[in-house]
Design brief:
Elements: H1 11-30, H2 34-48, H3 58-66, H4 72-100
Helix pairs in contact: 1-2, 1-4, 3-4
């Protein structure tokens, strides 16, 4: 779907962004293999592309807004959907980790 300023956006766009983000981050939080993470990104993009622009990243949505490619309302919807998808993936990985002795590794050290 074209999420340009003034274009019609449906809930499917936001659901697709959230679902794509969930799949990508679920793999990021549970796998250490960079190839599997890249495959997870590809799968997330393919899922999101069913209905959205497949940003999967608030930075991309923010830049699209700044460039005028999408309205502020749509950008906020995309970002909220992406964050919900990522948070759900983290919670999912916590549940999976407890059952399979895998802990999500999040390292914010630069």
């Amino acid at each position: 779907t074209d999420a340009g300023v003034g274009s019609a956006i449906t809930n499917a766009d936001y659901i697709a962004e959230g679902a794509g983000s969930f799949v990508f981050f679920a793999i990021v939080f549970t796998q250490k293999n960079p190839i599997l993470i890249a495959v997870g990104l590809l799968i997330g993009i393919l899922i999101a592309s069913i209905a959205s622009q497949s940003h999967l990243n608030p930075a991309i949505s923010t830049v699209s807004y700044i460039k005028g490619d999408m309205s502020g309302e749509v950008a906020v919807g995309y970002i909220v959907s992406q964050l919900i998808g990522a948070y759900a993936a983290y919670q999912f990985s916590e549940i999976i980790g407890e059952k399979n002795n895998i802990k999500p590794e999040i390292n914010f050290n630069l």
